[in-house]
Amino acid sequence: MPGLIDCVTAALDARLSLDADRPVALALSGGGDSMALLHLAADWCARRGRRLLTLTVDHRLHRDSAVWTAFAGEAARDLGADWRTLSWDGPKPATGLPAAARAARHALLADTARQAGARVILMAHTADDIAESDWMRDQGATLGALRDWSPSPAWPQGRGLMLLRPLLTASRADLRALLRARNALWLEDPANADPRFLRSQARMALQSETPSFSSSSRGPTATASTIVEAMKSSPMIWSGLVTLPRAVPARTLAAALLSVSGQAAPPRSPRLTALHARLASDSEVTATLSGARIQASGQTLLITREPGRTGLPAAALPPNAPAVWDGRFEITAPEPGWSVGALKGRMASLAPVDQAIVKRLPASARPALPVLFRDADPRPLLAWRVAETRCLVAGRLIAAAGGIGHEDQLTHSSGETPPADLFLNRSGG
Question: Where does ATP bind (predicted)?
Answer without folding.
Answer: 29-34
